[in-house]
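S., here's the first fold you wanted:
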Amino acid sequence: MKEILRQRFIEQIFVMFGREPRKPAQITERALRAHELKRMTNKQDLQAMKAHMRSHEEKSTRWRNRRWLTLIAINLLFVLSFALDIQILEGALTASRFIGFHLIDLNSAIQVMLAHKHIITNLLIGTATVLVLWILFGGRSFCSWVCPYHLLAEWAEKIHLWLAAKKLVTDQPIDRRLRSVFWVAFALLAVVTGYTVFESISPTGILSRAMIYGSGLLALLWVLALLVFEIFFVRRAWCRYACPIGLTYGVVGIVSPVRIKYTLDGCFHEGDCRKVCLVPHVLDTVIKGRAVDTEVPIGPDCTRCGLCVDTCPTGSLKFEVKGLSKLM
């Protein structure tokens, strides 16, 4: 069983780098029994259970609301600290200082050190603090709980889905391996040019600095162009297929104790969770016959946004801290 779970863990890492999820070659005995029991269940009984769950289902936005409030509060604290000169949270998301503690965005630190071609001690101190923070809370939690562009892209996605329902637009998915290519490309650009090229076009940094200090029109037009592209052509294009920040924090999230865990037994495999997921490839395990065990942690590319937890009518997806009880 340990070998099966280890293989699943490795597969999740490859999926994060762009490989398409694949049907597992091996499944634990208890998972096989659970899958077989589901196949043996009378279809009429299954439909009755589904109908019962739907009739008692309460649409929740609990985790989404918590996340939006947290994201807005963090970014607002940057703005107020600067505007009121209270020096609680100085700087911007790329580099800041919280009550004297230096905080350096991991991807920004990598870009700066590659551009300067040597390790900068002061950067390492601030980076270490952030590294520990996101190891504890889950690397890509930064994306959904802190990044201001992520929130705008989430709202843009709602517009895209509304237009798609009206058959006014169609989604054009892109090969997810492109994000890894962009990560390497921006790293090479930093080395070759001696300049942090990515930081000049990163919508995360642009929006953070714009809210705090104001920003040039050209930079904001670039962010607007990205959102327009996502609304009319490829939803969440930047976050899913281009942004190296997500990949950097995804690697950090490999060892994070905070995660979402899937429980096979109660799942009806209706796919509502995958429809709302911001990175649906991480929920491949909820497809009928794909779970390698009766309890499977979702992979490191998960943003811990909680939308699937809010949506699941049976509670088969829940937050948990590894080794401790479920959060909810």
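And the second, which I think is the more interesting of the pair:
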Amino acid sequence: MQSKNILILGSGAREHAFAWKLKQSPKVKNIFVAPGNAGTDSIAQNINISINNFDSVKEVVIKNNIDLVLVGPEEPIVNGIVDYFEVDEILKNIPIIAPNKQGAKLEGSKSFAKNFMLKYNIPTAKYHVVTEQNIDEGISFLSSFAPPYVLKADGLAAGKGVLIINSKDDAINSLRDILEGKFGSSGKKVVIEQFLQGIEMSCFILTDSTNYLLLPEAKDYKRIGEGDTGLNTGGMGAVSPVPFVDDKLIKKINDLIIHRTIYGLKAEKINYKGFVFIGLMINDGEPYVIEYNVRMGDPETEVVLPRINNDFFDLLEATWNGTLNEQKINISEKTFVTIITASKGYPEHYEKGKIISGLNKVSESIVFHSGTLLKDGNVITNGGRVLAVSSQGNNIQNAVRNSLNTLQNIHFDGIYYRKDIGFEFE
């Protein structure tokens, strides 16, 4: 069998985890990551290009005889990288794992996603879509139920376009602010939602447009402070499996949400070959969709992939070929926890360029790099979230302890991490 050359687009811990997993496949020869980080540099070849410059991506694909492209972050997906491949004579037959631009609207447009859920009877919070033209309708909708209120900028806003507000007056003022440009062009439309009480979890599927595989579930921790306090971040840690998830809940998620999502994609004739991340709120045993993402989550990927025993390349190839129905997912019963190290000041102002030490002392955990860079032979910080330290254990507490033990050996100036990931399951 001919060994394959893989191109992964992205620079975070998710992409490092993809490379780590694909490196284990005997069918994979060379892995390229664009632009990558210091972690991917140790197991793959980094290529410093802008992944939103599709002409540059094409050059890399041709030059390196790429056999499959795996897209990590949402921006190039929403910008239409799959559509670019589809119409190019050279690229159109090269497998690319991501949905096309229409499918990417599930993440790129909150109003599209909510209307999709309504059309296909997928449980979600009550909502109303507001523009400057119908702001009075939005204000009336806010008056129709009690706070808290959820306001979401329609487009991509780098994870900052969601507000949860406890007073109607504040919600009205924030609605005007968003429509007037608080989040730039992503706020030309605003989705107002009724707040859902409950406990959050993340569900992931891999689909070839017709069939799908349910991947391990996860729960991430967005708040910067212990006990889930403080500002929202891109995620400070994650656990998998999630203790409250049982067969009964999985059946409901499959029947009420996943089956209807796949049916809707087919009915809309959307070419969707890739991951669907479904953010769920579980309220009194009932699942509701908070959001869709059209890629794997980060830091969830860093606990989901280590639990998948399959050859990851086989799953991606079957996704492109439309043969996922011939694959059977093999999931480890081990628990995995990842703890994120962040730069001092994150998620607000933080400094870069701090030297990271102790990575050579790691033996019991997997350290996935997020915001790192190689400079003058040193690994240095290059982002707000810096490392994802993933460990396995017999339960969450054991896995957390293993990651914390590893973190005692890792240092950079201003290092911060939560010590209570999974705290509610103790």
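Why I say that: Residues 248 and 285 are 9 Å apart (CA to CA). The chain has a mean pLDDT of 95.

Talk tomorrow,
H.
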